[in-house]
Amino acid sequence: MAKRGGKRGAFRRGFGGGRSDRGPRGRRRGRRDEEEKWVPVTKLGRLVKIREITSLEVQIIDQLIGPSLKDEVMKITPVKKQTCAGQRTRFKAFVVVGDGKGHVGLGVKCSKEVATAIRGAIILAKLSVIPVRRGYWGNKIGKPHMPCKVTGKCGSVSIRMVPAPRGAGIVAARVPKKVLQFAGIEDVFTFSRGSTKTLGNFVKATFECLLKGYGFLTPDFWKETHFTRSPFQEYSDLLGKLAKTLLLEEAATVDV
Fold this sequence. Notes:
7 helices; Ribosomal_uS5_C; structural constituent of ribosome; Ribsml_uS5_D2-typ_fold_subgr; Double Stranded RNA Binding Domain
């Protein structure tokens, strides 16, 4: 009996080496329960767990910022891709995280299931947490707010933030207002233009606007830079002891 898919020019069963749009076949894996105890797998994670580094695994963000870090799903939208077998539908989630004290992050994830997309977006948002520059404009009176004018752009959407006096509140649309609340800004004027109905571009433009706060140096940042040693160099002895401890624990487990 002749073998299938012979030499070049012979008849074969489609293209792509037998792979379908569903990917390689295999046994389905069940959902794993999330472990409450965190076991770090990197040197940086071990140093953070023993509190030698207090300033990126996702759990590092949770341990440093603590329970004040909150998240909110901004939007879940279905996206489609045309394949030879028809349309493939997936779900895209936009998630914003922040503690209301000068830290905010944005995560975007696409997956076949809504729950998986939200979970992945939360992880990416925590990994992309940035410090929000808050200060004063003209006079150092009251609480810090937006210190300067900044502009962010994504696609056709552009947004400009202007410092506002105390008590003005957040003068913005629903999407940037939620991001600014998570960032901890209380008084700011905003001006936006473009297709602001596209929520994904709108929230990305707002995030870029906050990111640009540290894009330039003002006189209060004109200080001499003091270089420090890498955490891996500073805590090399401690990391060696931790590695020996882990090896002894594994050996004891194998013996049992």
